[in-house]
Amino acid sequence: MAEPKTPTRVAGLPVAGEDDVASFLEKVRAMPPVSQERGRRGRLIFAMDATMSRQATWDRALQIQAEMFAETERVGGLDVQLVYFRGFGECRASKWVSVPAALARLMTSVECRGGNTQIGKVLSHVIKEAGTDPVNAVVFVGDALEEGLDALCEKAGQVGLLNVPIFMFQEGDDSQVERGYREIARLTGGAWFRLDQSSAKMLRDLLSAVAVYAAGGRPALANYSKTRGGGARLLLERLG
């Protein structure tokens, strides 16, 4: 598949270690692809806060995310889309790609810009995409929440009705942000996790587990957790 085109904005609605990875690939390669199980490919939306407050940790996050998606290139049955927001009302999305290396190259071209969070636009985008074709999971990475929580919860509830779990990864320890992220995760049937300077390995582990979930559902995740434990088991516990 060709590399994703430069993301565009649509008015009104947004469009826009090594041992862990090796074990993840070994396990997923043994799974039947989604196309055999359910007649379609799994779809995962990866959403990121690209506002200026994340500049300090942006490069580290990009490296972790790029490494994980580069590894998933060999995992059958999973398409990925990047969504990010930054600046003054800028919220963009890539096309769906089955070659995560192309998406990783797009991610490295994104620079942080000042602005407020636009999580509501991300949720609206998820609703739109899932209404067209099922989305198996959403990963969101951010450190702030500057929108009205009630309005976000209303949209999160709509996402939950579409059976799309959102996995909220929080950088920092702001208690109000944690409260909002936890509620969004709860309403969608997803899970909340905190990221810090020592959590690079955990992020890779959890992203692996989310990818397995998106590709093969809860049975695949349960099977994966039997041998990997760690993030996969934690994800199962958070899913309830």
Ordered list of secondary-structure elements with their pairings:
Layout: H1 18-29, H2 34-37, E1 42-49, H3 55-72, E2 78-86, E3 90-93, H4 100-108, H5 119-132, E4 137-142, H6 149-161, E5 166-171, H7 175-188, E6 191-195, H8 200-228, H9 230-239
Parallel strand pairs: 1-2, 1-4, 4-5, 5-6
Antiparallel strand pairs: 2-3
Model description:
The protein has 240 residues and is of the alpha/beta class. The protein is built from nine helices and six strands; from the N terminus they run H-H-E-H-E-E-H-H-E-H-E-H-E-H-H. It has helices at residues 18-29, 34-37, 55-72, 100-108, 119-132, 149-161, 175-188, 200-228, 230-239, and strands at residues 42-49, 78-86, 90-93, 137-142, 166-171, 191-195. It has a six-stranded mixed β-sheet with strand order 3-2-1-4-5-6, sandwiched between helices. Helix 1 packs across helix 8, helix 6 (149-161) packs parallel to helix 7 (175-188) and helix 8 packs across helix 9 (230-239). The longest helix has 29 residues, at 200-228. The termini are far apart. Mean pLDDT is 74; it is low at 1-38.
**Binned strand content:** 15-25%
Rg over alpha carbons: 16 Å
The portion of residues assigned to helices is 40-55%
Number of helices: 9
Main beta sheet, described? 6 strands, mixed
Determine the N-to-C terminus distance: 36 Å
Count of strand segments: 6
Element-by-element helix/strand order: HHEHEEHHEHEHEHH
Structural class: alpha/beta
| Shape verdict | globular
Subunit arrangement of the protein: single chain
- The average pLDDT score comes to 74
Low-confidence stretches: 1-38
